[in-house]
Amino acid sequence: MSTFKREKFKTLVHFICSRCENPSRLGATKLNKVIWYTETSSFLKTDEPLTGVKFVKGEYGPRAHAIVPVINELVEDHAILVKDAVYYGKPKKEYISLTEPQIDGLFTAQEISLIDRMITMVCDQNTAKSVSDATHNEIWKAAEIGEEIPIYTVLANRGEITEEDVQWADRKIAELTR
């Protein structure tokens, strides 16, 4: 289980806001998706998420549990501005970076490259709806709103459970209970 690196997460949020120069391209849904895809991609590549933030089921897909307090803190620090906007008749939040995030020592060059790729994929190549729909997988559907969605569920595969799978699970349980 990974430890939550709060300062790194706060800097990640600020960094994402600073990289999206056009605030209309980054609303709450897309911000959460950049975080989700960054964390899960890091986990799949290195066996460790980038910041260890926990995710919960939100209406539009997995949502970083710590996002609201961190956004509020960044606003209080005058690091970002949150602007209310209307997009196709619906309310939307836009995030504008007011200062440069201090990333020195927090992110490697590979991590910055990963974050930038996720920003491009989410903000420039998808709509909020398309990127949201892509995260509405079986795990998300099975969870209740507000329920934690562990990072390792990204490894879940759709399919039938075979007798061999059950026997393997029984062996693992037996090993753990010895």
**Model regions low in confidence, pLDDT < 50 over at least 5 residues:** none
Strand content: 5-15%
Oligomeric nature of the chains: single chain
Mean pLDDT: 89
Main sheet specs: 2 strands, antiparallel
Percentage of residues in helical conformation: 40-55%
- The backbone outline, from C-alpha atoms, is globular
Task: Describe what this molecule looks like in 3D.
The chain has 178 residues and is α+β, with helices and mostly antiparallel strands. The protein has one domain (6-176). The protein contains seven helices and four strands. It has helices spanning 6-19, 28-46, 67-76, 109-125, 128-134, 138-142, 163-176, and strands at residues 55-58, 61-64, 80-87, 90-97. A two-stranded antiparallel ribbon has the order 1-2. The protein has a two-stranded antiparallel sheet with strand order 3-4. Helix 1 (6-19) packs across helix 3 and helix 2 (28-46) packs across helix 4 (109-125). The longest helix is centred in the N-terminal third of the chain and has 19 residues, at 28-46. The chain is globular, with a radius of gyration of 18 Å. It starts with 5 loop residues before the first helix and ends with a helix. The mean pLDDT is 89. Residues 31-141 form the Antitoxin SocA-like Panacea domain. This is Antitoxin SocA-like Panacea domain-containing protein. Pfam families: SocA_Panacea. InterPro entries: SocA_Panacea.
